[in-house]
Amino acid sequence: MNEVSPHNAPEKLTVELGDRRYPIYIGEGLLSQAGNLIAPYAPSKKVAIITDENVWALHGKTLEAALSSYETHVCVRPAGEAQKSFEGLEQVLESLFKGGFDRSDLLIAFGGGVIGDLAGFAASMFKRGMPFVQIPTTLLAQVDSSVGGKTAINNRFGKNLVGAFYQPKAVIADTDVLKTLPQREIKAGYAEVLKYGLLGDRAFFDWLDDEGGEKLLALDNAALLKAIKQSCTTKARIVAADEHEKGQRALLNLGHSFAHALELDAGYDGDLLHGEAVSVGMEMAFQYSVQKGLCDNDAAIRVGRHLEKLSMPSIASEQTRLVDPKRLTHYMGQDKKNESGLITLILVKSIGGAFVQKGVADKDVENFLTSLTASSDP
Ligand SMILES: NC(=O)c1ccc[n+]([C@@H]2O[C@H](COP(=O)([O-])OP(=O)(O)OC[C@H]3O[C@@H](n4cnc5c(N)ncnc54)[C@H](O)[C@@H]3O)[C@@H](O)[C@H]2O)c1
Ligand SMILES: O=C(O)C(=O)C[C@@H](O)[C@H](O)[C@H](O)COP(=O)(O)O
Ligand SMILES: [Zn+2]
């Protein structure tokens, strides 16, 4: 049995959800301690690991060794957003039936946000629900998707439109596994880190803009730990206060109404990653707020400069995706936050000052998107 060694003791945060409260463990070398960390949630000692081909090839052996005292069944899916589909879901459920699982067994989602959302959704519906643990392996998943219990697949109407709120029993974030991430994926994850600064934490943004952003993109250990802890602390607080997004949880959607429309438009084939779309979407939220007189232009300029300095996707770099404002606006009409046929947007008063704006007319959004296109220049 692997012991949790004292010099390697993980940081522990808690998502305070009463009798469904759960820990988030963050630290180096945690994958090899997974056997001990999941033990309270796997009394039957039978575990289903849902993962993707890249993660399994790079880190599967470490997890298998850590779980040597368990009976493990592995379901390896192709990598990529296309797995968040009815077909991907059916394949995961099939693997659970074939493995003879029941509700006393544990499912482990071992991968990025795609695997977390897909496997979490499968766990929520398998025999009406089996327990699951998140072992996130991307920066995006460690700072955001593994926490909070949003699980979903996409369909032709849009992102995450079929899903459930279903909380994991624990989250185990091993920062060592991030060392194998391609730079493009690190940047995609960085967008969600930046989101926490922009939505409610000016000091965190200042740190990111000053030195934290560059250090994170270089996977500096101390910066990584700080950013994951800070992001998860904010997310855990918001989720504990508003698990089902009746109010303040919607702030975690900053930039996402625009982002999800861009993703649907691009197709879920890897052309535009979720985090890349969020990067552009957050800049749009700032610019929209400026156009409506809600936010000072200096704030939007500062956000734009930050994205440019780190070579992050931006309105300027993604101009070719903005050529059809009417279609993008139509896609935004399906967003889950909308009410009574009107769009809900997360807007900003300042850096760190996001708020929920309901009742936005389609035409306002379309006019705004039109104003961003190169063809609207005088
Ligand atoms: N549920 C939520 O709250 C929430 C929050 C944010 C995003 N999301 C969802 O998360 C998804 C995006 O997640 P993602 O960015 O992690 O993408 P992903 O899961 O597709 O992973 C990105 C890529 O990195 C590879 N990979 C994963 N871990 C690796 C590692 N350690 N080393 C090398 N390669 C590795 C994967 O195989 C994949 O090719 C989107 O579907 C988005 O909608 C959900
Ligand atoms: O956890 C949340 O709440 C979020 O909004 C986090 C987002 O980063 C994430 O992309 C989420 O999946 C989007 O939620 P959705 O409800 O707009 O599908
Ligand atoms: Zn997101």
TrEMBL record:
EC nos: 4.2.3.4
Cofactor requirement: Co(2+); Zn(2+); NAD(+)
Single GO molecular function: metal ion binding
GO BP annotations listed: amino acid biosynthetic process; aromatic amino acid family biosynthetic process; chorismate biosynthetic process
Record field: catalytic activity: 7-phospho-2-dehydro-3-deoxy-D-arabino-heptonate = 3-dehydroquinate + phosphate
HAMAP family registered for this protein in UniProt: DHQ_synthase
Protein name: 3-dehydroquinate synthase
Organism: Litorimonas taeanensis
